[in-house]
């Protein structure tokens, strides 16, 4: 949140579109065998041979999906890639390429785009995806990022949302709710800062939550972890909008109901402390807070022994018949109908 | 430009993101053999078997790339698809799938998005591409459309910008400059309309130009036409930013120069008339006006006899050694250095 006011600023207009694209893309390297031709022509050329191609796309808008007053541009670039890579991982596929399109208003200097690109480049390198194309143009207001991710998998590996069956166990990777509470902490500090700009935020008690918000990771490791456990997931989705919302997607598309156990939902101790501080129920946050990018999936009941002690995963419920409905079983053993209260970009 | 003020308006917020996506995508059908799974999961799944995959992406921003005061939404949706399909055609590949992401401000009612989707659906159906995914979210200002197109081709069919050789002939499909002058006509009529809203525009003399601006077509037919002529292009690009700009891309990437003959540049008679009316040089428009979505390509000199009388194509120049430079040979037989003066989204 500290800014050097004497940074060099280069206007985008002085460069022009082609030079800007050249400048911003010169550090992208090709590492995937399936990338035949990356940036620099009308289109990229890819070779997936006998593998199937998996494609997902996301559009991120300043003021809707992110706030640059506490989201550093490098983190934003990183997170934008993660969100798309996560969708590919949620198909139980291997992410391989991305395209990145940007629209920026003239208030952004070149150096800001370089920061953004540094985050994109870092994420691309960590996740081993090639940046193979994109578009750079101006916007009337703010920053807009559109990323399309491609991945590969064999047909029997690919896991849809619609494969869950009655009796399957519901499993989640990692822990939930931290990214959302990280955002609440950052928004509170922003307000404090606006009242008194000399107040430097003390964020030591919130590091995990803030990291989950500013630098989330996609669970690219889950595919390999499950392969080693010899578990084939029956349905899978990533948690971008919140556990409730994603679970209801699986139930709807698989034509099943579910029982989700409140006491089983994995929550980090830091989240519990901060929820107490904010006087918010941590289960509500874990159910409805988005942007965790963990994977939610179902497995056959028979696979329970293979996964039960694995530190990467938590069994949080099971699937029931569709007419039994979708429920949360609380710690007090009462049954509450699950509702999707996840993020809705279109609400006013 | 006439608007029925009594149209039914449904607010996007009243629907919510998931219902909106369901509503807008329900008419998309799958026609490509390579589409295994379209909309409805974390990602789409495609099967290109032994073919290579070609990927291109575009970001269109209201107020930068289009003006809704004279661009009807249905035409806009159509044109957005065409611009992307055109990039795939420019690789000498077959367009097969697109993803469509939209960000809209709350001022857009559902019915406006339906119009936009009707144009997208029409273009997808005409070009035989499947809509396999996307994202729908809100914007702070205006409408933003991001489209990623995929296509397929065998490796020996794919034509890059960098394959032109000294002695190759330079060929263009269709005619040039009309889309740009169509835009000039529409902008003039908009100004007239702003002065006196009762003035109904008389556009009979401009129908071809306006159609080229509002409903351009991608030259998907060129690949097949060239196959029938038994011509394999050596380099290819689509004309979105203007002939000069695109030709310079081919020259730069192929490390060659060029001689482009002014008298050979194909121009529609309506363009000549309107250029006279506007007191603009038609060659300048043909060189620098964008959005024609014709294909510019090079072929071996030996193929000249196969193409010379074909009504779809015009030979407009030839490639020379890189150190001879890039020139326009005027009707007066003077040699002028070619400059890219195409559209630059980032200029203020």
UniProtKB/TrEMBL annotation, chains A, B:
Entry-linked InterPro entries: PurM-like_C_dom (IPR010918), PurM-like_C_sf (IPR036676), PurM-like_N (IPR016188), PurM-like_N_sf (IPR036921), ThiL-like (IPR006283)
Keywords annotated in UniProt: ATP-binding, Kinase, Magnesium, Metal-binding, Nucleotide-binding, Thiamine biosynthesis, Transferase
Binding residues annotated for Mg(2+) 4, in chain numbering: 42, 56, 87
Chain sites annotated for binding ATP: 134-135, 161, 240
Binding, substrate: 65, 291, 343
Gene Ontology MF term list: ATP binding; magnesium ion binding; thiamine-phosphate kinase activity
Pathway where it operates: Cofactor biosynthesis; thiamine diphosphate biosynthesis; thiamine diphosphate from thiamine phosphate: step 1/1
Gene Ontology biological process terms in this record: thiamine biosynthetic process; thiamine diphosphate biosynthetic process
Binding site for Mg(2+) 3: 42, 87, 238
The reaction(s) this protein catalyses: thiamine phosphate + ATP = thiamine diphosphate + ADP
All copies of domain PurM-like C-terminal, residue ranges: 165-324
Reported function: Catalyzes the ATP-dependent phosphorylation of thiamine-monophosphate (TMP) to form thiamine-pyrophosphate (TPP), the active form of vitamin B1.
Family: Belongs to the thiamine-monophosphate kinase family.
PANTHER family found in the cross-reference section: THIAMINE-MONOPHOSPHATE KINASE
Record's protein name: Thiamine-monophosphate kinase
């Amino acid at each position: 949140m500290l800014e050097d006011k004497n940074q060099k600023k280069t206007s985008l207009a002085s460069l022009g579109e082609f030079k800007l694209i050249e400048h911003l893309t010169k550090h992208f390297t090709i590492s995937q065998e399936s990338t035949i031709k990356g940036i620099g022509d009308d289109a990229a050329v890819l070779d997936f041979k006998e593998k199937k191609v998996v494609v997902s796309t996301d559009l991120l808008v300043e003021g809707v999906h992110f706030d640059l007053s506490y989201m550093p541009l490098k983190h934003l670039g990183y997170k934008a890639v993660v969100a798309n890579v996560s969708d590919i991982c949620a198909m139980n596929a291997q992410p391989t390429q991305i395209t990145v399109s940007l629209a920026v208003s003239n208030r952004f200097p070149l150096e800001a785009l370089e920061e953004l690109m540094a985050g994109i480049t870092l994420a691309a390198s960590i996740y081993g995806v090639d940046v193979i194309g994109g578009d750079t143009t101006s916007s009337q207001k703010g920053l807009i990022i559109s990323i399309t991710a491609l991945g590969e998998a064999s047909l029997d590996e690919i896991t849809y949302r619609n494969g869950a069956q009655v009796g399957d166990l519901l499993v989640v990777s990692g822990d939930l709710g931290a990214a959302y509470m990280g955002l609440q902490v950052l928004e509170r500090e922003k307000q404090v800062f606006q009242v008194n700009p000399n107040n430097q935020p003390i964020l030591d008690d919130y590091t995990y939550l803030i990291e989950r918000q500013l630098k989330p990771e996609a669970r690219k490791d889950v595919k390999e972890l499950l392969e080693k456990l010899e578990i084939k997931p029956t349905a899978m989705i990533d948690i971008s909008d919140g556990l409730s919302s994603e679970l209801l997607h699986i139930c709807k598309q698989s034509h099943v109901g579910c029982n989700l156990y409140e006491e089983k939902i994995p929550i980090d101790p830091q989240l519990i402390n901060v929820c107490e501080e904010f006087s918010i129920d941590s289960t509500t946050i874990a159910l409805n807070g988005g942007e965790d990018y963990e994977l939610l999936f179902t497995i056959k009941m028979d696979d329970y022994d293979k996964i039960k002690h694995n530190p990467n995963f938590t069994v949080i419920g099971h699937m029931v018949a569709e007419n039994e409905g979708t429920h949360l079983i609380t710690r007090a053993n009462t049954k509450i109908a699950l509702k999707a209260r996840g993020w809705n970009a279109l609400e006013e």
